[in-house]
Amino acid sequence: MVNQDQFWLRIIYVISVIISAAVAFLILGPRPEGMEGTLDVSILPVVNATLNGITTILLLYGYILIRQKKRQKHKTIMLIAFATSSAFLVSYIIYHWFKAGPKQYVGAYNEIYLFILLTHIVLASIIIPLALITLYRGWTDNLSKHRKIAKITFPLWLYVSITGVVIYYMLY
Questions:
Q1: What pLDDT, in 10s, does the model give residues 6-57?
Q2: What is the pLDDT of residue 150?
Q3: What are phi and psi of 35, to 5 degrees?
Q4: 103 vs 113: CA distance, rounded Å
Q5: How many Å apart are CA 133 and CA 139, to the nearest integer?
Q6: How wide is the angle at C-alpha 25 spanned by C-alphas 11 and 123, nearest 5°?
Q7: For the chain, is the Cβ count within 10 Å smaller at the N or the C terminus?
Q8: DSSP 68
Q9: Could you name the CATH architecture of 2-30+41-171?
Q10: Cα-flanking dihedrals φ and ψ of residue 6, to 5°?
């Protein structure tokens, strides 16, 4: 079991690094000539904020379910939360592939915006392996390790999903 556990943890870390690097490249890296505007992605920011909002609700509901000891329902809701987060990530990548660079904040609360954005970005990259490990521990019924990491993952994932919506409202 230990070798299998180590194998899956390595896979999770590799996937996490690849996803973080891909997102960073898509936002900051060069685009092939003529990509910008070839697909109308103007609706995707609202889709992304909606997916983050749904994820927030699902995370809170999953937390309530586990406090009520409804383990199977908790598992289902947490998998759905992971699916909405994954859908967000796919939509976010598509948006940034077809739109050049990040949108600039032009509001009156620049320091607050930058703090929220910076913490959101850092924690979003950290949440990738944390969420995957937490789901893996729950899926394999390694409940003692699942509980330990979920105590870290839950508030961070919740913060990332909430600040994703806040950032949308500050930008748009």
A1: 999 999 999 999 999 988 887 777 877 877 778 899 999 999 999 999 999 9
A2: 98
A3: -75, -40
A4: 12
A5: 10
A6: 60
A7: N
A8: T
A9: Up-down Bundle (1.20)
A10: -60, -40
What are the tokens at 89? Answer: 């990530």
DSSP assignment letter at 141: T
User: Angle CA(13)–CA(159)–CA(133) in degrees, nearest 5?
Assistant: 25
Q: Are 105 and 171 in contact (CB under 8 A)?
A: yes
Rounded to 5°, angle at Cα 115 from 132 and 168: 70
User: What residue segments make up the domains of the chain, in order of their start?
Assistant: 2-30+41-171
| CA dist., res. 63 & res. 84, Å (int) | 16
List the structure tokens of 125.
């990259």
pLDDT, mean over the chain: 93
Reading the block at residue 163, the tokens are 């600040």
The pair of three-digit structure tokens given for residue 8, joined into one six-digit string: 């899956």
- Tell the residue number behind the tokens 């940034």, with chain if given: 96
Among 139, 124, 168, 166, CA closest to 23: 124
Tokens for 15?
Answer: 């996937």
CB burial readout 143-157, b (16+ within 10 A) else e: eeebeebbeebbebb
pLDDT at 101 over 80: no
CA dihedral 165, 20, 114, 127 (to 10 degrees): 60
